[in-house]
Amino acid sequence: MLNPTQADLSPAFYQSVLDYSLTRIYAAIAVRDPDTNELVDFQVILSNYAFRKAVARTEAELSTNSLRALFPVLDRSGYFNEYRRVVETGISFTGELDGAGPAGRDWYKITVRKLNDGIVVNLIDITDRKQQEQANLLKTIANETQSAIALLEAVRDEAGTFVDLRFALANPTCAQILGRSQQELIGANYLSLFPEAQHDGMLDLYRNVLETGEPLQLSELEYRSGAVNGWFDTRISRYGDGAIVTFNDITAIKENELALSRQSEQLRATLDASLSSIFYMTAIYEPQTAQIIDFRVEMANKATERSINMKPEEIEGHTLMTLFPGNAENGFFDAYVRVMQTGQPEQMTQHYRDELGLEGWFEVSAVKQGADSMVVTFMNVTESKQLERQLRESNASLDQFAAVASHDLQEPLRKINSFSQVLREQYASRLGDGAELLLRMQSAANRMQTLIHDLLAYSRLSGGQSVPNQSVDLNRLIGDVLIDLEVAIQEKVASIQVDKLPALTGNALQLRQIFQNLLSNALKFSKPNLPPHVRVSGQEVKRTALPAELILPGKPRLAYWQITVADAGIGFNEAYRERIFGAFERLHGRSSQYSGTGIGLAIVKKVMDNHGGAVLAHSREGEGATFTLYFPK
């Protein structure tokens, strides 16, 4: 066996061996602080050719400079501390190091072992593997991301002029949005897929990015072409002689925004069409006590211009107490706080006045919305309040008139009747033709008394008094009316049929006036020489079965009592079916055989109004008349 000579094992021989190795190798000794003996750096004492080439340093540069000065990356990456730990503990270290190399970024697998008071470092180039890993990672990210990504290469003519783009890369999301497969996209020219880009400005946008290098951001770009139909957030950046374009399909988001915008506009239009003024307010709390100290008006509708002479833009964003300081005194603010605390809606009508000049009566409703908000609707009812006051004053005057009419107007008429009767009885033989004059005078006085009586009855009904809530038996009430009309019934030989009727809730005296007038009219307007026939009937009817022409005041009910008074008299022209309910309306002249003041049916209508009901009349001349009353059940 051949033994190597001493010359063969010289340092030059070992250096040659190291230089032939593809692994980057260097050895370094510790540099210590002379005072503390702390390891503060390393000095390279040996390196191979592969290492020097990789770091682009000469052997002289490596041997005359400290390791930290040569490679600052060791401090940034924390590897210097690892080197020092190997020397101090004797435990080897293995890791990966990346940094800038001559051709760009390099990656190395690094192994550090202790050698005496220093280290031996082995660096294996793993750049290709890391680059492949990164490429695979980027490909995975591109394929999995919801953003569309495409790499477009510039297509130029022989003169080098930009004329088109070619797809070099397209991820699955891009292919899906563009409505084509990745195979169809890659290699295809942009204009062949989107020919309209030549005219709609898109190709010019790419040209500008390629020429200037300035990236382009397009937010909410609406694009409609072929399979592409929607809104996109787009970014175009230059990459070599081409461009990288990324875009996100925000069509669903944009359509939702547009739908919400339309709904908001519709809601605003609806609110602005409301006759009531509307505030949407949020509570303002005192930080320490969490007590509500004010409200901020977030939204106001246009009705505020009518009710408080302020435009919505003058109100929105301001606090309630700044706009309307009088709320603290009149109780509105306290009511709003209660609504927020209890969640119970409140309604109120209050007089408002503040130092800013706003004054009036307001009808207000407040409803809590969510945790910290509320909706307030209100109407300026100042004019209504003034009309109510005027009506009260008018009713008071009417009551005074009724008192005067009851005594002062009727008393002279009673005396005229009384004196006329005495003259006729005691001096009839002396009066001759004068007796006829006295009879006419008595008749005129009686008509005047009847008119005054009817006027008083009508005025009492119009006085705005509430209807007592009591049960009234209609059969008993009509029985009493028939007793009052007994003389007229006997004179006319009338037949009056009263079916089984319900009990109603209302004012017995007013209800009596209805049937007193309707039955007396049925007797009065009977056909000459024919006994009158009158029928009073009743039944329950559902609201859905009511006549379409019927207008009922107050809150609708599920059912109503229908009471009908039908006769076989002379009837009337259907054209006058509404007119007959007016005061002093008479279809027959005053000289006709049918006397009356024309107030009876007006009283009927007024009583029905007072009871939340309504009356309809139907007739044909010569065929009788039917009056139908509808009372809420």
SSE map:
Blueprint: H1 11-20, E1 24-32, E2 39-47, H2 49-55, H3 59-64, H4 67-70, H5 73-77, H6 79-89, E3 93-101, E4 104-115, E5 118-125, H7 127-144, E6 148-156, E7 162-170, H8 172-178, H9 182-185, H10 190-193, H11 197-200, H12 202-212, E8 216-225, E9 228-238, E10 242-249, H13 251-273, E11 277-285, E12 292-300, H14 304-307, H15 312-315, H16 320-323, H17 327-330, H18 332-342, E13 346-353, E14 359-369, E15 373-380, H19 382-426, H20 428-431, H21 434-461, E16 470-473, H22 474-484, H23 486-492, E17 495-498, E18 503-506, H24 508-524, E19 533-542, E20 559-567, H25 600-610, E21 614-619, E22 625-632
Parallel strand pairs: 17-19
Antiparallel strand pairs: 1-2, 1-5, 3-4, 4-5, 6-7, 6-10, 8-9, 9-10, 11-12, 11-15, 13-14, 14-15, 16-18, 19-20, 20-22, 21-22
Helix pairs in contact: 19-21, 21-25, 22-24, 24-25
GO molecular function: phosphorelay sensor kinase activity
InterPro entries: HATPase_C_sf, HATPase_dom, His_kinase_dom, HisK_dim/P_dom, HisK_dim/P_sf, PAS, PAS-like_dom_sf, PAS_4
EC number: 2.7.13.3
Describe the overall structure.
- This protein is an alpha+beta fold.
- The strands form 5 sheets. It has a 5-stranded antiparallel β-sheet, sandwiched between helices. A 5-stranded antiparallel β-sheet has the order 7-6-10-9-8, with helices on both faces.
- Strand 1 (24-32) and strand 2 form a beta hairpin.
Low-confidence stretches: none
Helix proportion: 40-55%
Characterize the overall form. Answer: elongated
Which topology of the largest domain does CATH recognise? Heat Shock Protein 90
Global mean pLDDT: 84
Strand content: 25-35%
Radius of gyration: 53 Å
The side-by-side strand order for the widest beta sheet comes to 2-1-5-4-3
Q: Give the class-level CATH name of the largest domain.
A: Alpha Beta
Domain module count: 5
